[in-house]
């Protein structure tokens, strides 16, 4: 489980560096699909990851809008403020938590029952999916996207 | 590990159904980013998944081009022919395989050392990333993409 979060954090850092070479106008430009923009996507990924970690722990959620975070600096600061709690939760994950029940109410009012294991994998897939969207938008502005490869990042400890 | 493969197969099936409502011209249309088209992406996902499963087992690879598979029917048939071997490998996965070493030679000739656990997660991330690209292209042709949600698919056995 941890390895895929580390993959996501590593890829996310690569995208932040990539953003440093792109004009702010391009980062904020409205685009088709997903949440509709490059920097907004990074904000959304960070927001959703933290919100799930908070929800699993029965803590209050994050509900601010992207309008308050329209620069790389602000999105990075937001991430830095969330990271310790996210990391502590993820790095302390163990198989005993896998089947804990999480009851959620969907936007249309139905009660949904998920396991913590499902929620964790939902978070992982959520980020990778949105990063896939960034890769298309990158090509649309004639930029090479960040590599999505998981191998080659040295994520398996102890074999290199 | 298995749950994320099952997620990918479930989402992939949803995309095949989605493709059934789209004209063949749209499915084959050249698009920006990724491998450059909707049906080509599904072909590529299926090709790469099977190729990795084969490589891990030291078996021969799949090297055919998309040019021979330019219809939903052909891509689905290819998937059906690969599925039993992929499924057998994934469903028999166990933690004891996690740190097995896989030596690969990159396109530029370097030898790379990965663990089987890394390769499996690489395969998972690879598909989710490409599906994210489909979601942008779907919006570009004014279609609602398939949901990328992992929760709500009943993937955790025994709690529903």
- The gross shape of chain A turns out to be globular
Distance between the termini of chain A: 20 Å
Examine the coordinates and then state which fold CATH places here, giving the name of the CATH topology of chain A: Four Helix Bundle (Hemerythrin (Met), subunit A)
CA-based gyration radius of chain A: 16 Å
Largest sheet of chain A: 2 strands, antiparallel
Report helical residue fraction of chain A. 40-55%
Element-level helix/strand string of chain A: HHHHEEH
Query: Numbering strands along the chain, what is their spatial order in the largest sheet of chain A?
Result: 1-2
CATH superfamily of chain A, called what? dinb family like domain
Strand tally of chain A, please? 2
CATH class of chain A: Mainly Alpha
DSSP summary: helix tally of chain A: 5
Largest protein interface? A-B, 44 and 44 residues
Low-confidence stretches of chain A: none
Class by alpha and beta content of chain A: mainly alpha
Oligomer: homodimer
């Amino acid at each position: 489980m941890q390895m895929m979060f580390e993959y996501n954090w590593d890829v996310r850092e690569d995208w932040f560096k990539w953003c440093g070479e792109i004009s702010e106008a391009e980062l904020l430009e409205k685009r088709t699909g997903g949440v509709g923009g490059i920097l907004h996507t990074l904000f959304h990924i960070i927001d959703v990851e933290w919100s799930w970690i908070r929800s699993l722990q029965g803590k209050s959620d994050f509900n601010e809008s992207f309008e308050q975070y329209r620069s790389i600096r602000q999105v990075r600061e937001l991430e830095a403020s969330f990271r310790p709690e996210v990391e502590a939760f993820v790095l302390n994950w163990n198989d005993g938590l896998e089947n804990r029940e999480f009851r959620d109410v969907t936007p249309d009012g139905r009660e949904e029952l998920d396991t913590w294991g499902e929620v964790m994998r939902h978070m992982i897939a959520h980020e990778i999916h949105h990063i896939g969207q960034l890769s298309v938008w990158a090509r649309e502005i004639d930029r090479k996207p960040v590599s999505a490869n998981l191998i080659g990042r040295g994520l398996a400890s102890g074999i290199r």
